[in-house]
From TrEMBL:
UniProt entry keywords in alphabetical sequence: Metal-binding, Oxidoreductase, Zinc
Protein name listed in UniProt: Alcohol dehydrogenase GroES domain protein
Cited InterPro entries: ADH-like_C, ADH-like_N, ADH_Zn_CS, ER, GroES-like_sf, NAD(P)-bd_dom_sf
Similarity comment: family membership: Belongs to the zinc-containing alcohol dehydrogenase family.
Needed cofactors: Zn(2+)
Any GO MF annotation of the entry: zinc ion binding
Recorded superkingdom: Bacteria
Domain Enoyl reductase (ER): residue ranges: 8-386
Listed Pfam families: ADH_N, ADH_zinc_N
Ranges that cross the membrane: none
Stored PROSITE patterns: ADH_ZINC (PS00059)
Length: 388
């Protein structure tokens, strides 16, 4: 089959590789119909995540048709059309049972290594380095889906691929970011980053009752899309963001602040990883960052929600502000499984049509060009869908 393989920083190639096979009785094999490139894939593309190996298959946002199931799979059968959450979860461990699906104790065989090397670990994710399980990703014609009864959701034929594909990640991620921001009716919410995660966070904040959303980015097309979603826009390149937010909120600051940017904006790259942390901190002092602004801007007693991905040591962390202002800080990989059904329902009943996010449609073979365009944020690119 054809698959998008990682070979190093800014080097992805479409190659012919062996088809995946059932390895475990709870596996399913999916023929991929559509797959997207995520801001999280850019961390791999930019070389920000360690423990990638040449030839690793990328991709964690995908959907398609079930073509084979292992003998213990009960809820899926060949022919089913499914969307697959990027979080691989057993469904049985204590974390899964508590609804903390992205922290599954059984899906990351390399968790011990991550713990030993970096002092933290998470669950297993598709196409996201050996640190997170070393699973082959879904930017391919076929993919093996472990724990097939605890992840994929079947989707109705009446909804197009582009309407449901983003249930795999960025719609639940934006939604959980807004939910973790503890939005109450009447709240003002500020969101840094108008990539796909930020766009879904904007719309989710309104679905959850926000009175006003203020969106921060620098890219005109992204700010325009944020405005189309009902947000007031701020360009961080020509505005003092923290001051502007104060002015817009009667001097108080927003009730909730969401960092949908992540570590790439910090300009430290791989230096953020442990033993080079000192260098990371030094670079940060010259460069005020989204994360620090988020904490500075939030009103007393407010909530900071961080869906943006961070690794290692980032920023001179303003712990004093968090403490003195009594802020609540929430972060983490999305517990996608928890949101699949409720958000599919919202799509089906017309609350939201996630296909608004798609700006570029290419074939799997065109992945190298697609990665370049999305990384450069050229040509108005906000979300790329590759059809396999
Ligand atoms: P993206 O790269 O398309 O978007 C990031 C946006 O942030 C860009 O539009 C960029 O211009 C903007 N930005 C950069 N610096 C900024 C600053 N100082 N202030 C305001 N905006 C700034 O990525 P995306 O797909 O939207 O993902 C966003 C983040 O969410 C990434 O870190 C990604 O890894 C993460 N993510 C997390 C989860 C999760 O489970 N928590 C899931 C998916 C993605
Ligand atoms: Zn993603």
């Amino acid at each position: 089959m054809k698959a998008v393989c990682w070979y190093g920083t800014h080097d992805v190639r479409v190659e012919t590789v062996p088809d995946p096979a059932i390895l475990n009785p709870q596996d399913a094999i999916i023929r991929v119909s559509a797959t997207a490139i995520c801001g999280s894939d850019l961390h791999l593309y930019d070389g920000y995540i360690p423990d990638m190996e040449a030839g690793d298959i990328l991709g964690h946002e995908f959907m398609g048709e079930v073509v084979e199931v292992g003998r213990e799979v009960k809820t899926l059968k060949p022919g089913d059309r499914v969307v697959v959450p990027f979080t691989i979860s057993c469904g049985r461990c204590d974390y899964c049972q508590r609804g903390l699906w992205s922290l599954c104790d059984n899906s990351n065989p390399n968790a011990w290594m991550a713990e030993a090397l970096y002092g933290f670990s998470g669950g297993g994710y598709y196409g996201y380095s050996h640190l997170f399980g070393g699973y082959a990703g879904g930017q391919a014609e076929y993919v093996r889906v472990p724990f097939a009864d605890a992840g994929p959701i079947t989707v109705p034929d009446g909804l197009s691929d582009e309407q449901v594909l983003f249930l795999s990640d960025v719609f639940p991620t934006g939604y959980m970011a807004a939910e973790q921001a503890e939005i109450k009716p009447g709240d003002v919410v500020a969101i840094w980053g108008c990539g796909p995660v930020g766009q879904f966070a904007i719309r989710s904040a309104y679905l959850l009752g926000a009175d006003e959303v203020i969106a921060i980015d620098r890219i005109p097309e992204r700010l325009r899309m944020a405005e189309a979603g009902g947000a007031r826009r701020l360009n961080y390149e020509d505005t003092d963001v923290v001051e502007a937010l104060k002015e817009l909120t009667g001097g108080r600051g927003p009730d909730a602040c969401i960092d949908a940017v992540g570590m790439e904006a910090h300009g430290v790259g791989p230096a953020a990883w442990f033993d080079r942390a000192e260098q990371a901190v030094r670079l940060e002092t010259d460069r005020p960052t989204a994360l620090r602004q988020v904490i500075q801007a939030c009103r007393k007693g407010g909530t900071v929600s961080v869906p943006g991905v961070y690794g290692g040591f980032i920023d001179k962390f303003p712990m004093g502000a968090i403490f003195s202002k009594g802020l609540t800080l929430r972060a983490g990989q999305t517990h996608v499984q928890a949101y699949l059904r409720p958000l599919l329902e919202r799509i089906a009943n017309g609350d939201i049509d996630p296909s608004f996010i798609v700006t570029h449609r290419l074939s799997l073979e065109e992945a190298p060009e697609a990665y370049r365009t999305f990384q450069q944020k050229e040509d108005g690119c906000i979300k790329v869908v590759l059809s396999a």
